[in-house]
Design a protein that fits this description.
Protein name: 3-isopropylmalate dehydratase large subunit
Number of helices: 16
Number of domains: 3
Shape: globular
Family: Belongs to the aconitase/IPM isomerase family. LeuC type 1 subfamily.
GO biological process, one term: L-leucine biosynthetic process
GO molecular function, one term: 4 iron, 4 sulfur cluster binding
Bound molecules: 3-isopropylmalic acid, iron/sulfur cluster
Distance between the termini: 48 Å
CATH architecture of the largest domain: 2-Layer Sandwich
Pathway: Amino-acid biosynthesis; L-leucine biosynthesis; L-leucine from 3-methyl-2-oxobutanoate: step 2/4
Length: 463
């Protein structure tokens, strides 16, 4: 009578300390340029080696430019971070997919797509969106830099066991509703702190019906409601996606792994610390109207009135709307926008580009919109070309950029100017997230595509 989480967790417990802290074994460690320099520095200072270098994969993603990657990075801070990761990886003997490497991309896009992420694993990275990998039936969560150092040195970290929560989404989604809409809906109901302290398993008919990439989108956003991580039990969808990928087990090893992976589901009588149920029929295309991912609404609705917010939160609510330049009670549809960003570890995968391209086919980009279409990895970029999506996009007036985190957090040059509105398929709409003063409206790839061709917030179901 165990949950999926417990089954995987228990297999990875090395030791339990007197105070209940667990020493947890880590199967896979992803490492990017932002949160790793001090960790490598710490190893060097203590004269330590990386204990199991083959279990860490490094790549720069946050600071990479999305144009002219063939040339040295111009920004000295970004260049230094990227160069530091390259030299650390070389010094410590870790696999490194640098800029220009055809396997480079956003780490949370690359891990699943090359099969480095697998069911039943424990996976960490010095990055909050590590929760993405849980979509493949793994325990995956973000860690701090001191834990990055610990992982490099020992392949273990110390953790408190989180509480478990199951979020069931019953029923069937309506047409035009994407995985991003499901996730934004869940966060709008849960609020940004609603899952704090919990590890979430997503279940139910609507979740089972999602593709592998849609699950990655949903689990990616778990962190935005405070969850430690999110996961989906692996099934045929997962196995089919994994089979034949570079790091996936092959031949007899595959059969052995598959037999084990099939046991990875919560038992019928498993007990969760908290159970929540939503209905897919209640979900419509979503957008955010405020400055945290919990401030989401159905696209056909009106921005919540001041009175609908509890009194203690009204000042911060008003501040968020002022930042966005929106009024309580007004409809959000029809609002003029300036930028569209398709990309990030939330929605930068091939299915997102297919959805976007399919939608804009035969239409034209609105003149008032600057669109940044940024594939999540070089693998995605190649697939876009192979499928001829680039031709469709070009005909509709769009152009593609090179892979990286890009405008998701604007650590590179892709910054939305102050006061401008960006409909963004990324995961955070905090003040200044996409550039100082930038205003972010989070949405899925279809809402982004509808905004790109109309220049306004538009319900994609109406086009
Ligand atoms: C830079 C990194 C530490 C950060 C994270 O942890 O999520 C970033 O990826 C983000 O999305 O804000
Ligand atoms: S794409 Fe965005 S959310 Fe994902 S790792 Fe990069 S900065 Fe973080």
């Amino acid at each position: 009578m165990n949950t999926l989480f417990e089954k995987i967790w228990d297999k990875h417990v090395v030791d339990t300390l007197a105070d209940g802290t667990i020493q947890l074994y880590i199967d896979r460690h992803f490492c990017h340029e932002v949160t790793s320099p001090q960790a490598f520095g710490g190893l060097r200072a203590r004269g330590l080696k990386v204990f199991r270098p083959e279990q860490t994969l490094c790549m720069p993603d946050h600071n990479v430019p999305t144009l002219k990657q063939e040339f040295p990075i111009e920004d000295p801070i970004s260049k230094n971070q990227v160069d530091t990761l390259a030299s650390n990886a070389q010094e410590f003997g870790i696999t490194y997919y640098g800029i220009g490497n055809n396997k480079n991309g956003i780490i949370h896009v690359v891990g699943p797509e090359n099969g480095y992420t697998q069911p039943g694993m424990t996976i960490v990275c010095g990055d909050s969106h590590t929760s993405t990998h849980g979509a493949m039936g793994a325990i995956a969560f973000g860690i701090g830099t001191s834990e990055v150092e610990m992982t490099l040195a020992t392949q273990c970290i110390f953790q408190r066991k989180p509480k478990t929560m199951r979020i069931t989404v019953d029923g069937k989604r309506k047409p035009g509703v994407t995985a991003k809409d499901i996730a934004l809906y869940i966060i709008s109901q849960m609020t940004t702190g609603g899952a704090t302290g919990y590890f979430v398993e997503y279940a139910g008919e609507a979740i089972r019906a999602t593709s592998m990439e849609e699950r990655l989108t949903i689990c990616n956003l778990s962190i935005e409601m405070g969850a430690r991580g999110g996961m989906v039990a692996p099934d045929e969808t997962t196995f089919e996606y994994l089979k034949g990928r570079e790091f996936a087990p092959k031949g007899e090893e595959w059969e052995k792994a598959l037999a084990y992976w099939k046991t990875l589901k919560s038992d019928e009588d498993a007990v969760f610390d908290k159970e929540i149920v939503y209905h897919a029929e209640d979900i419509e295309p979503m957008v955010t109207y405020g400055t945290n991912p919990g401030m989401g609404m159905g696209i056909s609705g009106t921005i919540p009135s001041l009175e609908s917010v509890d009194e203690a939160s009204r000042i911060s609510y008003k501040k968020a709307l002022d930042y966005m330049g929106f009024q309580p009670g007004e409809p959000i549809q029809g609002k003029s926008i300036d930028y569209v960003f398709l990309g990030s570890c939330t929605n930068g995968r091939i299915e997102d580009f297919r959805a976007f391209a399919h939608f804009v086919k035969g239409k034209k980009k609105a003149d008032n919109v600057i669109a940044w279409l940024v594939p999540g990895s070089w693998n995605v970029a190649r697939q876009i070309k192979e499928e001829g999506l680039d031709v469709i996009l070009t005909e509709a007036g769009f152009s593609l950029r090179q892979p990286g985190c890009s405008a998701c957090l604007a650590m590179n040059d892709d910054k939305v100017p102050a006061g401008k509105y960006a409909v963004s398929t990324s995961n955070r709409n905090f003040e200044g997230r996409q550039g100082p003063g930038a205003r972010t409206i989070l949405a899925g790839p279809l809402v982004a595509a509808a905004a790109a061709v109309t220049g306004k917030i538009t319900d994609p179901r109406t086009l």
